[in-house]
Amino acid sequence: MGARGIRVEDPADVAAGVRAALEHRGGPVVLDVVVDPHAIAIPSHIPASTVKGFTLSVAKEVLSGRLDDVIETATHNIGLL
Fold it and tell me: pTM of this prediction?
């Protein structure tokens, strides 16, 4: 397709990766940033609708037999605090 690909694996390299993507003038750019698959982004303000949606999502995971995934995600994120 002709797009330039930039992969960022180290958090210290994010600024340089974004800068390189923005400076590229030869066509489209794909910025591939490796992230922690279990990390939950926590905004400074959480609207009630977001809490409701998150709770519903977790309940659906539990009811569909994916309690192990819920526990793994929670355990991982508690370790990040």
Answer: 0.50
Domain spans, the chain: 1-35, 38-81
State the burial class of residue 29 (Cβ atoms within 10 Å of its Cβ: 0-12, 13-18, 19+): middle
Kindly list the distances between the CA atom of residue 75 and the CA atoms of 11, 31, 63, 65, in Å, as whole numbers in the listed order.
22, 29, 19, 18
Where residue 12 falls among pLDDT bands split at 50, 70, 90?
A: very high
Residues 6+ apart with CB under 8 A from 6: 17, 20, 21, 29, 30, 31, 32
Task: Using the predicted structure, report yes or no on whether residue 60 has a pLDDT greater than 80.
Answer: yes
Sequence-distant (6+) residues with CB within 8 A of 54 are: none
